[in-house]
Amino acid sequence: MKQFELVDTPIDPQKYSEFVLHPAAGAVTVFTGHVREWTHGVRTLYLAYEAYIPMAEKKLAEIGEEMEEKWPGVRVAMAHRIGELKISDIAVVIAVSSPHRKAAYEANEYAIERIKEVVPIWKKEIWEDGEEWIGAQKKYPEKGSR
Amino acid sequence: MITVHYFARLRELTGKGEESLDRAPLTVEELLDWAETTYPGFGKDTIHVAVNEEYARKEDVIQAGDVCAFIPPVSGG
User: Fold this and answer.
1) How close B50 gets to chain A, by Cα (Å)?
2) Using one digit for the tens of pLDDT, what is the confidence trace for B22-62?
3) A26-64: pLDDT as tens digits
4) Nearest-10 Cα torsion for A115, A96, A82, A6
């Protein structure tokens, strides 16, 4: 595995948790984002994710750098899956270790928010009666994403 | 020549994942205008452009050999 990666096979969160664990870490937070069946009353059959893979991995690594600057001492590993995912499959995993728990929680939430803002990954929802590419980007990302 | 990549909705709209263009140098804004004209419904006002895997500003200039990507609103996570 790589520290920051796009994968097209099922995600094993344990690998990322183990990657960030080290003797000075007193806390590890692991966030897994899953495919949800119901969104605002609409039933999803499955999702299809695609990505601009090299840029997406670069952006994940940049988010990791941002986290290390904001919460010194954290260690981070992240992966996002692409391709077709079924209900409850893991789409994204974020593992963060830190000496104390507060930074591990905060940095982890920061990571998922930044992923949704700047990482070039797209989700298509496939329903019983149609499909649509979803996009919620609110603002022009700043150059270099900082 | 520059290479342009299309993803998600734009890949389906254009019917291709990438193509080469012999238009450099041009600005990001000019590239977006070209795309809107060439592919009606492109939706340039919601699309960002990455040049060599980094988000670019509308006034940035694309040079021959650059690799560009149209980035529609992202929805990872």
Assistant:
1) 9
2) 999 999 999 999 999 999 999 999 999 999 999 999 999 99
3) 999 999 999 999 988 899 999 999 999 999 999 999 999
4) 100
Distance from CA of B54 to the nearest CA of A (A): 7
Q: Determine the residue type at B67.
A: V
Domains of chain B, first to last: 2-71 (3.10.20.30)
List, in order of start, the domains of chain A with CATH numbers: 4-132 (3.90.1170.40)
Q: Do A121 and B50 touch (CB under 8 A)?
A: no
Question: DSSP 3-state assignment of B5?
Answer: strand
- Residues of chain B in contact with residue A122, where contact means CB-CB under 8 angstroms, are 7-9, 72, 74-76
Q: Does B38 touch chain A (CB under 8 A)?
A: no
DSSP H helices in A1-146: 13-20, 53-70, 101-118
Nearest to A92 among B55, B57, B76 (CB): B76
In chain A, which stretches have pLDDT less than 50?
Answer: 137-146
